[in-house]
Specification:
six-stranded parallel beta sheet; 12 strands; alpha/beta; single chain; globular; 356 residues
């Protein structure tokens, strides 16, 4: 365990760095909770990719979010470098005492070093063994056992050098305004107070279930008197998939908000649902974080790393019903639907169980 006197000074400033996808950002929240529990008055800032800002924008424990915008590349070399330099100098001016670098990119290591923080902790990644990575950090947390750990457990293991008791709960935060916007949309469409959210899409279609099977599941729940709200991202392929499902369902007690919600509005919708049914995607992680009853359909992703954390419900793995490829060997552009082995009856039964 290492500790620095600067971490006990009043007005502690902490920066957390993670440069990944939306789901990855949500799963950093236990680290933020742990830091807040240890240092109740600290200023906790986050550096992330700009497009993932919405995942953490309403989190009550975060003081400031800084974003790296991938669109900077379109500004040309000079414009891009200006933006990068502005970010570096802004972060250095914050005079952080502690920087936690959860990322594995060289860029994150350089930023960590440039902050000048007296305590800079990163992970001792196998692929980053060398002088420069060590030089950018004052301490490296062990990655031993990471291959057997969930992503949440991997993240909170960065706290080991600080001797902090980790908090493992994931939090999806949204504002009252987010829920009001969703509530207005539901009222317009005549959705009752009790409803089921179904998110059949992922940006990777190999993670999706057959449209006709999803439609059969929805139809079975409709027949039992439940109202279904369908959601998806704004991508044309996802919207087309929702349209295909809608066309195969009875028209009563089903509405679509596909492509119509921000990420935080989607969180508000899921947070107020009686049940969430979805595939391995960000909304599934949101449902688990919000403790909404959940039926998650899983294919060839690494269950150990990416199963919904502390889920209130059931994870149905396609590998129980047929062979799946090695997760590291999947062609993400394939049109193969690896979830199709999952039977409709299994999903309907799990949904009934969650609703009972």
């Amino acid at each position: 365990m290492m500790m620095n006197n600067s971490l006990n000074a009043p007005g502690l400033r902490i920066l957390l760095i993670k440069l990944r996808h939306h789901g990855d950002m949500l799963l950093t929240t236990p680290v933020i909770h742990s830091l807040r529990q240890r240092w109740p008055d600290a200023q906790i800032d986050v550096l992330l990719y700009e497009e993932t800002r919405d995942m953490l924008a309403a989190h009550p424990d975060i003081h400031q979010i800084y974003g790296i915008d991938r669109k900077w590349k379109k500004l040309g070399t000079r414009g891009h470098l200006q933006k990068e330099w502005q970010l570096l100098t802004t972060l250095r001016d914050q005079r952080y005492q502690l920087v936690l670098n959860l990322a594995d990119q060289w860029r994150s290591a350089i930023i960590t070093r440039f902050t000048g923080a007296p305590v800079r902790i990163g992970f001792d990644f196998n692929k980053r063994r060398g002088w420069f990575w060590r030089h950018c950090h004052t301490e490296l947390a062990s990655v031993n056992g990471h291959k057997q750990m969930h992503t949440v457990e991997q993240n909170i293991s960065i706290l080991a050098p600080l001797g902090i008791a980790p908090v493992s709960s994931v939090a999806m935060s949204y504002s009252p305004e987010d829920w009001q916007a969703v509530s207005d949309k539901l009222a317009e469409k005549g959705v009752p107070e009790k409803f089921i959210v179904v998110q059949p899409t992922s940006r990777w279609f190999f993670k999706c279930w057959d449209e006709s099977k999803m439609a059969q599941t929805i139809s079975a729940l409709q027949q039992e008197g439940h109202t279904i709200v369908l959601t998806s991202g704004p991508d044309k392929k996802e919207l087309a998939m929702v349209d295909t499902i809608l066309a195969a369902c009875p028209q009563e007690r089903v509405v679509s908000l596909a492509g119509q919600l921000t990420l935080r509005q989607l969180g508000a919708l899921i947070g107020h649902a009686a049940l969430f049914i979805g595939v391995d995607s960000v909304p599934m992680h949101m449902a688990a974080a919000l403790q909404t009853p959940c039926v998650a359909l899983f294919g060839p992703s690494k269950l150990t790393f990416w199963s919904p954390w502390q889920v209130n419900g059931e994870v149905i793995w396609a590998g129980e019903y047929g062979p799946l490829p090695d997760p590291d060997a999947v062609d993400t552009k394939t049109k193969e639907r690896y979830l199709d082995a999952i039977p409709v009856e299994r999903v309907v039964a799990a949904a009934r169980n969650c609703l009972s």
